[in-house]
Each structure stands twice: as C-alpha cells, then as structure tokens.
Design brief:
The protein starts with a helix and ends with a helix. The longest helix has 24 residues. The protein is elongated, with a radius of gyration of 20 Å. The protein folds into two domains: 65 residues, Tetracycline Repressor, domain 2; 114 residues, no CATH class. It contains eleven helices and no strands. It is an all-alpha fold.
Length: 189
C-alpha cells in the first residue's frame, strides 16, 4: 500500500514539475495535453490528480513558491534605517524578480485568466511589499498618496522587467534609480 501511495505522490509531483516547466517556457496557455506529455502520463492521469485548472494552478504555485527565496519585509527592517533600508528592500525584491523572471513574465501576462484565489494571493503579497516600503520611507500625510502610487510602480514586476530586461539597466542602477524616485515622492515639496 505504501508503494502505491509513493507512486501516486511521485506521479503528482511529475505533473506539477512538468506544468511549472511549461509555464516558465511556453506560458500559462500550456494545455493539459502538453502537461501530460511533458510528465509522461495520460491526460486522464492529469485530471485524476487535478480535476480543474484551479487545483493545478494552486499546486504549481505552491511548488514554485517553495523553491524561491521570497522577499521578506521582516529582514528589511533589520537593515540600517532610512535610505539603506529602502535600498535593502528594493534589492531583495528585485533579486526575487530576477530569479523568477521567466515565470513571473508569463504570470503577469495572464493575471486576468488565473483562478481568483491565485490572483488574490499574488495581489495580497504585492500589497504587503508596498505597505512595508511605504512604512520604511514614512511619508508625511500630505505626500502619502503620491508615495503609495510611486511605490506601487517601483515594486511592480513589469516596471522591473522593462528597466532591466527590456532596456538593460543594471541591477544596482535600477535599485538606486527607483530608491531615488521613492525618496523624491516621500519628501515634502
């Protein structure tokens, strides 16, 4: 009985790994047929493990996230206060973007087609990063709305992708540029 359970777990893992691999390379439009072929199983086997897209996306998301070193706002707070803390936060966030750029590109292109719980989890995580950075720069009340908007732009994967991947801005430079933008927004005019 244990061997059968282990085989079922291995098959499930192969399906998830195949799906994540396809999501990284061809995008989130990979079909169940594509996933089954990449995993070396039948379509029926994929459906037996994952009866719908939401279940497959949840398993893929969980698997991919478990392999990433996630940005951690609690570590940001350990950095020297002020400007250094902001740069630590942005460097950590941009490191994460760089490490997952292939999949994050495809996810950002398909956000409107993801299962609602997956989209919500992505949005909630991004909101946490934004809130932590706004807290770091502590703008005066009359600059808070502008600062929040700028931080939203600066912490957006498509912004990072445009600067670094599409236009060749170096990682260190993008941290300095975006930190300066946030500091400018947070300062009183």
């Amino acid at each position: 009985m244990r061997k059968r359970a282990a085989d079922v777990d291995r098959t499930r893992q192969r399906i998830v790994e195949a799906a994540v691999g396809l999501h990284r390379t061809v995008g989130l439009d990979a079909t169940v047929t594509d996933i089954a072929e990449a995993a070396g199983v039948t379509r029926a086997t994929v459906y037996r493990h994952f009866p719908d897209d939401a279940a497959l996306f949840a398993a893929c998301s969980s698997h991919w996230r478990s392999q990433q070193r996630r940005p951690d706002p609690s570590r940001w707070r350990e950095a020297e206060a002020g400007s250094a803390r902001l740069r630590t936060a942005l460097a950590d966030l941009y490191r994460y973007f760089a490490a997952g750029a292939d999949l994050l590109t495809n996810v950002s292109r398909a956000l409107d087609r993801l299962p609602p719980d997956v989209s919500r989890a992505i949005a909630d995580e991004a909101a946490g990063w934004r809130e932590a950075i706004v807290e770091i720069v502590a703008p005066p009340p009359d600059e808070r709305a502008v600062t929040e908007g700028v931080v939203g732009h600066v912490t957006s994967f498509p912004t990072w992708r445009s600067l670094v991947l599409d236009h060749g801005v170096a990682e260190g430079e993008v941290v300095e540029l975006m930190a300066g933008l946030v500091e400018q927004a947070a300062s009183s005019r």
